[in-house]
Design brief:
CATH architecture of the largest domain: 3 Solenoid
Largest sheet: 9 strands, mixed
Strand content: 25-35%
Number of helices: 0
Distance between the termini: 54 Å
Radius of gyration: 18 Å
CATH topology of the largest domain: UDP N-Acetylglucosamine Acyltransferase, domain 1
């Protein structure tokens, strides 16, 4: 049966991996056994996908990223160049009781270049992690986090544009409703949690 995905001649793809139609695996990328990658993904140069990793549809993983066992990436996620995932909360060279600590990156999230996601955390839907940040706790849906450790610096719409107080449509019963001026997307945030600049 013919592959429905593209793999560069220098890529190493396990025959036990499943890669969806239209996906592209570029130079020097290694995909291990029991990996599941969805349709229309792009795995750029020098990417490593560890055994058992699950990646959704339309995911972009940029150059020099290693996605380790225990990481799950949902649909439409962007992983910037040199982003780092971990899967061990107490790393030692020798640890006979070693176990994987899982990480989840939810639908539509973006991870900036050189950010680090410490294992055991969830990156929420459409959240954005700024370049160079270190995620040490869960990131809420639509949150923009930055720094080391990463802290909420605002919120973003699905388009990635920052939510502004000038976008507020209404606020009642502890919920503020914002409208994205680009496309009319409505975003509801708990008023007590809003941190906008």
């Amino acid at each position: 049966m013919e592959n429905t995905f593209f793999a560069h001649a220098t890529a190493e793809v396990s025959p036990k991996a499943s890669i969806g139609a239209g996906s592209k695996v570029w130079n020097l990328t290694q995909i291990r056994e029991d990996v599941v990658i969805g349709d229309d993904c792009i795995l750029s140069k020098n990417v490593y996908i560890d055994f058992g990793v699950k990646i959704g549809n339309r995911v972009k993983v940029q150059n020099n990223v290693s996605v380790y066992n225990g990481v799950t990436i949902e649909d439409d996620v962007f992983v910037g160049p040199c982003a780092v995932f971990t899967n061990d909360m107490t790393p030692r060279a020798v640890n006979p009781e070693w176990k994987v600590t899982e990480t989840l990156v939810k639908h539509g999230a973006s991870l900036g270049a050189n950010c680090t996601v410490v294992c055991g955390n969830t990156i929420g839907r459409y959240a954005m992690v700024a370049a160079g940040s270190t995620v040490t706790k869960d990131v809420p849906d639509h949150a923009l986090v930055m720094g080391n450790p990463a802290r909420i610096a605002g919120y973003v719409y699905r388009t990635g544009e920052r939510v502004s107080l000038t976008h507020i449509q209404s606020a009642k019963d502890g919920v503020a409703v914002f409208i994205n001026p680009q496309d009319g997307e409505e975003l509801q945030l708990q008023a007590g949690n809003i941190q906008l600049r």
